[in-house]
């Protein structure tokens, strides 16, 4: 099986020992994205703004892999405050159409750089 690194300069550069995504066969494994502006590498402010930035960062990596949000089969959402769940659903509706991917929303104590939301996922590209 072939394995390749996927990266985009339209998403934040990796800030650790990981790749933005890895493609193995026709499956792409997306690393977690937090709401960093890829130009400044600074955290955007406000929960809705952070959620939008995470989706935009994911979109950049997904497109670099040759896919779209319709190719996402699994999405994991990590929230420091689960009361934001309804807002995540609303913002997610701007990016996804039915059939929606399988999804988990997980409450966590903290995220890197003080982010309020992080997401990772898996896509399959035909």
Automatic annotation (TrEMBL):
Superkingdom of the source species: Bacteria
GO terms, molecular function: deaminase activity
Signal peptide as annotated in the record: none
Gene Ontology, cellular component aspect: cytosol
PANTHER family, alphabetized: 2-IMINOBUTANOATE/2-IMINOPROPANOATE DEAMINASE RIDA, 2-IMINOBUTANOATE_2-IMINOPROPANOATE DEAMINASE
NCBIfam families given in the database record: Rid family detoxifying hydrolase
Family per similarity comment: Belongs to the RutC family.
Protein name: RidA family protein
């Amino acid at each position: 099986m072939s394995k390749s690194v996927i990266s985009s300069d339209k998403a934040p550069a990796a800030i650790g020992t990981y790749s933005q995504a890895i493609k193995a066969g026709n499956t792409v494994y997306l690393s977690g994205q937090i709401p960093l502006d890829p130009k400044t590498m600074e955290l955007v402010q406000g929960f809705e703004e952070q959620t939008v930035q995470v989706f935009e960062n994911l979109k950049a990596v997904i497109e670099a892999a040759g896919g779209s949000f319709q190719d996402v089969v699994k999405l994991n959402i990590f929230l420091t405050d689960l009361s934001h769940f309804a807002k995540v659903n609303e913002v997610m509706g701007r990016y996804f159409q039915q059939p929606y991917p399988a999804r988990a929303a997980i409450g966590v104590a903290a995220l890197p750089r003080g982010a309020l939301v992080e997401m990772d996922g898996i896509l399959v590209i035909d």
